[in-house]
Amino acid sequence: MGMESEKMTVNYPDGRRFLSASDHLQSNTKPHHRDSVVFGGRGMSLEETINASNDYYRLHQRAVIYKKPTPIQIVKVDYPQRSQAVIREAYFRQASTTDYNGVYRGYYLDFEAKETTNKASFPLKNFHQHQVNHFRNCLAQDGICFTIMRFTTLERYFLTPASLLIEYWGKQATGRKSIPLTTIQKTGYEIPAGFQPALNYLDAVDQLITTAKR
Amino acid sequence: MGMESEKMTVNYPDGRRFLSASDHLQSNTKPHHRDSVVFGGRGMSLEETINASNDYYRLHQRAVIYKKPTPIQIVKVDYPQRSQAVIREAYFRQASTTDYNGVYRGYYLDFEAKETTNKASFPLKNFHQHQVNHFRNCLAQDGICFTIMRFTTLERYFLTPASLLIEYWGKQATGRKSIPLTTIQKTGYEIPAGFQPALNYLDAVDQLITTAKR
Questions:
Q1: Where is the protein situated, by its record's location annotation (chains A, B) (predicted)?
Q2: Considering the domain A10-69+96-211 in this protein, what is its CATH number?
Q3: How confident is the model at residue A42 (pLDDT cuts 50, 70, 90)?
């Protein structure tokens, strides 16, 4: 066949982990019992942690935030008799936006979540030009835009204003390749490890909104 | 094979028209020349009309609004050597939200767009329980929620507050199956046929925001 076929454990073209079908289903369903026994998202991927938190926020009417589906270009669909349609040929498309958006207390929230094993800085290569452009556009409409950065080795999470990413993105021309943790600590808001929700990032959003003096 | 294989012209399980790969690609790219020669979206599908309008709004920094990708459950991915990943088995999933959301002048916008060939009323069967639930959740967070209804035979478009859909959705138990056009005219805002953008619905959004007395 000249093809390598894999199930469940693959990566997207941009290196993100491809979640299994059950993970994808989970992200749009009610919280599982599992969510109630994790602490600070330990043992869960960053995406799982945020999805579980968003499920929690929706259930408790704190906010309505979803991860957007991965954009797919569909080419061929089969219709087996008496059963559901099967997509037989499709391709991953480049997203135009960030992964998460929604509404909270009348504010439009928009964010991207990334992680690093680095201990002293967050690599800019985790982000993409289209995400930076999208943040610029949303900020121009007074959206509340930010990144959630996870330092996996340190077990620390930060919410940083999108303006910080935009600033450092522009510094790449000068050879700058990452944002120092010290800068992130100063400009962002640390999100403490939580229980329910797994990552209680809305308190940091409240601080960001207050600081932005809207 | 016992399977019927089709390309490009199929329907989603809920009856929406399945757009071809090129349509899907188009929805996230810059406006085409084509957009500048249509009037009121004539000859375009409702989805194409709204996507073209959203492209226009983004390009002119009026608003940042996207159609969400169709949620897909991916089961199997092939990696042909030296070329891009091919999804070989995947399924359409039930969406949890509405199709469109974004940010406009600091407001979170959320809406669903539907059309009917009826002349005197808009059938409720065009909508789904999960959309009504999502509207309720977003309204509780002070989102600006609405539907865009197209009467294709009349060549008329209306923006109606989500509260109208929610009200009539609840009346289904009493046998009510549609929203009368007279009610839509009274409660909603007619969107005049446009040129650039193809459907200039933001003026109606301005009216909805003012009326909501936020």
A1: Cytoplasm
A2: 3.40.1350.10
A3: low
Band of pLDDT at residue A28, cut at 50, 70 and 90? very low
List chain B domain ranges: 10-69+95-211
What pLDDT is stored for residue A65 in this prediction? 98
Query: How far apart are alpha carbons A125 and A110 in whole angstroms?
Result: 20
**What is the token pair recorded at A159?**
């919410």
pLDDT at residue B214, rounded to an integer: 45
Residues ≥6 apart with Cβ < 8 Å to A62: A56, A104, A202
A108 part of contact set with chain B, CB < 8 Å: yes
My answer on whether omega of the bond before A161 falls inside 30° of 0, hence cis, is no
For A21, the closest of B5, B18, B75 (CB atoms) is: B75
Choose the CATH number for B10-69+95-211 among 4.10.520.10, 1.10.1240.10, 3.40.1350.10, 3.40.50.10140: 3.40.1350.10
* Among B63, B68, B142, beta carbon nearest to A69: B68
Q: Is the peptide bond before A197 cis (omega within 30 degrees of 0)?
A: yes
Name the helix (H) or strand (E) containing B197. none
Mark yes or no for CB contact B141/A81 under 8 Å: no
For residues A159 and A185, give the distance between their C-alpha atoms in angstroms, rounded to a whole number.
9
**Radius of gyration of chain A from Cα atoms?**
18
Digit-coded pLDDT (tens) for A110-156: 999 999 999 999 999 999 999 999 999 999 999 999 999 999 999 99
Which token pair is A61? 């009417």
> Annotated binding residue at A116?
no
B114-157, pLDDT tens digit by residue? 999 999 999 999 999 999 999 999 999 999 999 999 999 999 99
